[in-house]
Amino acid sequence: MELSPEESRKKNPANLPQNPFQFTRFTKTSDSQTINRLFSQFSKEELIKKNEAVSIAGRMTGKRMFFADLTDQTGTIQLKFNSKNEDLTKLDNGSIIGVKGIICRTDKGQLSVEVKEFVLLSRCLRLIPSSYYGFSDTEERFRNRPLDFIINRQKKEIFLTRHQVIKNIRQFLEEKSFIEIETPILVSEASGAQAKPFITHHNKLHRDFYLRIATEIPLKKLLVGGFEKIYEIGRIFRNEGIDARHNPEFTTVEVYQAYENAEYMMNLTEELFHYLAEKVFRQQTEFTFNSHNVSLQKPFRRLSMIEAIREHTNIDFAKINGLEEAHQLAQKYNLKLEKFQKTTGHVILAFFEEYVEQKLIQPTFIYDYPVEVSPLAKSKSENEKIADRFELYLGGLEFANGYSELNDPTEQKKRFEEQTKQKELGNEEIASFDKEFLEALEYGMPPAGGLGIGIDRLIMLFTEQNSIKEVIVFPQLKKKFTSTIANFIENREIEEEDERLVTIFLFLSTFLEFSKYLEADFVKEADLAWAEDKILRILFNNTLLPNKKMKLEMVSLGNSRIKFSDQKDNEDYFFILGGLLTGKEQNKPRSKSIKREISNLQRVRTHFAKNFLPFLEEEKRIEFLAVILDKLSFIEINLIKEEDIVDLFVALNETGLNLSQPDLIR
Questions:
Q1: Could you tell me if 185 and 213 are in contact, meaning their C-beta atoms sit under 8 angstroms apart?
Q2: In angstroms, rounded to a whole number, what is the distance separating the alpha carbons of residues 212 and 250?
Q3: Residues contacting 142, CB < 8 A, separation 6+
């Protein structure tokens, strides 16, 4: 039996030069970046005279004849060898080797290291795609980061840049005499932000803990304890959705300085952005982010929230008298308010988020937030309804949040009580009523300014990435949903009379399998697994449709069900999907052999993976789902909430797509 390439590699042939896993260390005297930097200016003859010996190590890739590339953390250098290095020619691509050699140039002028000795330090037992074909499947790249970094050097560069940014943030703050303090990740109260927390259990203490949703509260306790200039760079955990801008765990830097206020922290924020542009990016001030050109060159613009709303909507909330008038305005503009959003401040924030936020492309500070949505910030002395708070926006996204910290324990208790009322009305993101923090405030906290910056979005800006997954080394992903239906069908002997039924199920299995790429929160993985199980059961029992009519109903626990309504006998659902993905009209299958259906299924999947997956940003996923729902109006899927589909179509039609709503929601 012929072995696959991977099996052949794992067989560990006896002609290997040495045991690849026996070494514990290898002494390096240089690296690829240093060699390129120090010797790129010398000619071939000059390098021969220098006879510079080096010892380097890394992964061997791109092996061809008597040349190969050696890649380490700093970059790539070419290796040159000859027939005397016969053992080297036997090594697999991807092997990790140590090399001793002489720096030289080839006849074509390529700076290289001529191999004199080498040692095999580790074998690569899996095939690595060639650099020509690459590794561009976005979903698989995030699931297989080691392979991603081996093949895509530019993806590795993102994290080298991330390291430099974080290092320079620390340097910037330490130059201003801030000290870094680490606070707990496991906390007894989820406070300091409005977010739904993760909950875990401590077995020995017999109690639940939260993973922190912010570092604010413990750092402010340290202000009470006498620390005056402190910061923390740390991981934050929020039990929320996953999309191109959000990950359940992310990194922030929070900074607190006693005896300063929001205006000082605003100035500090802008100074930090300019500092990073100078130190890390050598005075670069223009970045492409979120499909916009963002400039850090000019001083950041500053607008109050009411001014920003007036500028973009011509609505002046300074002239709005009372809550009733604010609610009438919200109804006029079709703003959906939750039960707990019953204050003028909530209406103001809703207008800002709906009509202003995404239009703030160039760096803009928005200040003077409603106090109702700023429970930890001081009110302004001249207007108690306005919080002394700001946020920084770039490319339509929030990057920083800061304010003059509330240090009045009586007022803070009142704010917490108001938050508790909102929680009772359904706001799941309200923070806990933190009694320990109130007790700390009663000892006296100095007036202070606080600042929080999302480091992941900062890296997105500086590396010009549109997805947060690209800047997190191992981003959280939905569990891979592997369809077993197609495998079942391919391995089953199918009678001619089953062919029509199998075609339907091939289509549905394909739809379910591709649903995982949509990352739509309202398509639950458990529901997909349930639907797949039902399909397998029907196929296994060979339950044909009564009178060969196109009607099938499957019922499970609760109200979840998938239902095919009566359709014309000649409708071919699978080929409708094929037309959607290939953009071509598909002819009805004429052959009685199921092999054609299987072949077309594979062709459609291949086309989808090649042409759709690389572009599945949030908007594309939604558009793709909308098109499927539009074309497949005969499918009733109660797993998807009707209001979600209605909202989806309203949003898409505002962009001019003019999609008609499926029958199931008419």
A1: no
A2: 11
A3: 148, 469, 475, 477
Q: Kindly compute the dihedral angle of the four CA atoms of residues 570, 575, 577, 582, in this order, to the nearest 10 degrees.
A: -140
Give phi and psi for 54, each to the nearest 5: -135, 160
Q: Is the dihedral of CA 644, 646, 649, 655 positive or negative?
A: negative
The 3-class secondary structure across 539-608, one letter per residue, is HHHCCCCHHHCCCEEEECCCCCEEEECCCCCCCCHHHHHHHHHHCCCCCCCCCCCHHHHHHHHHHHHHHH
Which DSSP category does 85 fall into? G
User: Do residues 218 and 182 make contact, with C-beta atoms less than 8 angstroms apart?
Assistant: no
Burial of 22 (0-12, 13-18, 19+ CB in 10 A): exposed
- Tokens for 549? 């009519």
Give the H/E segment covering residue 636: strand 635-637
**Closest listed residue to residue 503, CA positions, set 569, 452, 432:** 569
The tens digit of pLDDT for each residue in 113-124 reads 999 999 999 999
Give the Cβ contact number of residue 205 at 10 Å.
Answer: 8
70-101 per-residue burial string, b: 16 or more CB within 10 A, e: under 16: bbbebbbbbbbbeeebeebeebbbbbbbbbbb
Work out the end-to-end distance of the chain between its first and last CA atoms, rounded to an integer number of angstroms: 59
Token digits of residue 660: 């008609």
| Contact yes or no for 181/219 (Cβ under 8 A) | yes
Rounded Cα–Cα distance for residues 639 and 456 (Å): 33
Q: Is the dihedral of CA 332, 333, 334, 337 positive or negative?
A: negative
Residue 105's nearest CA partner among 32, 29, 38, 45 is 45
pLDDT given at position 394 = 96
- Alpha carbon distance 230, 180 (integer Å): 6
Cα 210 to Cα 196: distance, rounded to the nearest angstrom = 10
Question: Residue 57 is which amino acid?
Answer: A
**b or e along 136-165 (b: 16 or more beta carbons within 10 Å of the residue's beta carbon)?**
eebbebbeebebbbbbbeebbebbebbeeb
Per DSSP, 615 falls in state G
Please name the residue that has the structure tokens 């109200």.
559
What single letter denotes the amino acid at residue 144? N
Q: Under DSSP, is residue 38 helix (H, G, I), strand (E, B) or coil?
A: helix
Pairing of strands 229-237, 179-180: parallel
> How far is it, in rounded angstroms, from Cα 372 to Cα 342?
10
Q: Is a pLDDT exceeding 50 seen at residue 523?
A: no
Degrees, nearest 5: CA angle 223-225-228: 40
- Among 172, 180, 130, which residue's Cα sits nearest to residue 151? 130
Give the tens place of pLDDT for each residue, 84-96.
Answer: 777 888 888 899 9
* Residues β-bridged to residue 70: 60, 77
Higher-confidence residue of 167 and 421: namely: 167
Contact between residue 218 and residue 230 where contact means Cβ atoms under 8 Å apart: no
Please write the tens of the pLDDT for every residue from 133-180.
677 778 788 889 999 999 998 999 999 999 999 999 999 999 999 999
Contacts of 304 (CB under 8 A, 6+ apart): 366, 367, 368
Percent above pLDDT 90 for the chain = 51
β-strand pairing of 552-555 with 448-454? unpaired
